[in-house]
Amino acid sequence: MKTLLLKNTEEDIKTAAELLKNGGVVGIPTETVYGLAADALNPEAVKKIFKAKGRPGDNPLIVHICDFSDIERLNLVTKIPDTAKKLADAFWPGPLTMIMKKSDVIPNEVSAGLDTVAIRFPSHKTAQAIIRESGTVLAAPSANISGSPSPTTAQHVAEDLTGRVDMIVDGGAVEIGVESTILDMTVEPPMILRPGAITADMMEPVV
Ligand code: AMP
Ligand code: MG
Fold first, then answer.
1. Does the CB atom of residue 35 touch ligand 1 within 6 A?
2. Which-ligand-closest: CA of 32?
3. What is the residue with the minimal CA distance to atom 10 of ligand 1?
4. Between the CA of residue 100 and those of 53, 82, 178, 195, what are the distances in Å?
5. Which residue of 12, 173, 188, 198 has the fewest CB atoms within a 10 Å radius of its CB?
6. pLDDT tens figures, 7-41
7. Is the CB of residue 193 below 6 angstroms from any atom belonging to ligand 1?
């Protein structure tokens, strides 16, 4: 497979979005780490992520949206908890992932067979533009071979995934360099499953 290396110009973003619409896999910058993106609503596209990374199929993926309204518009979950709305108001776009009960729209490949789905609204402008332009939502784990360090530059992504993905969009070095905080919204009170840039101290006043 030939891997295109693109910049984050308007034209390159359109090219990336077009590939994603057609079921391709693309390395994209986000504010946490580089992600390996595919159309989250297309099971065949999602399978390519697992193949490129050598990721075990039982490890679920985070779905990236470009507006809070995507959740309802695309019917991604059965119910948005009130607390999730409050946390989204406070911390989205940003490095917070929230887990909710999934609808049938989310393929089992994304949720790894669970009845829940992890959702995040990234703050990175290029990530937002690619999602918006693709017209869908994107499953995107870190853009590395499973087990190797998460990539913070397009160069890191290229070292791991050249020949294994369709395209890499170079958006420069990421800001944060650590993964998003993962919060399970299906339990009361919400539970942190993975610590990250948004801490319990930051979220407590909101919930
Ligand atoms: P990453 O490889 O950084 O994209 O991390 C994705 C991680 O999010 C997975 O390894 C899980 O730990 C977590 N995750 C994603 N979806 C779910 C889910 N439905 N329930 C619980 N954890 C999830
Ligand atoms: Mg990872």
1. no
2. 1
3. 59
4. 25, 12, 22, 18
5. 188
6. 999 999 999 999 999 999 999 999 999 999 999 99
7. yes
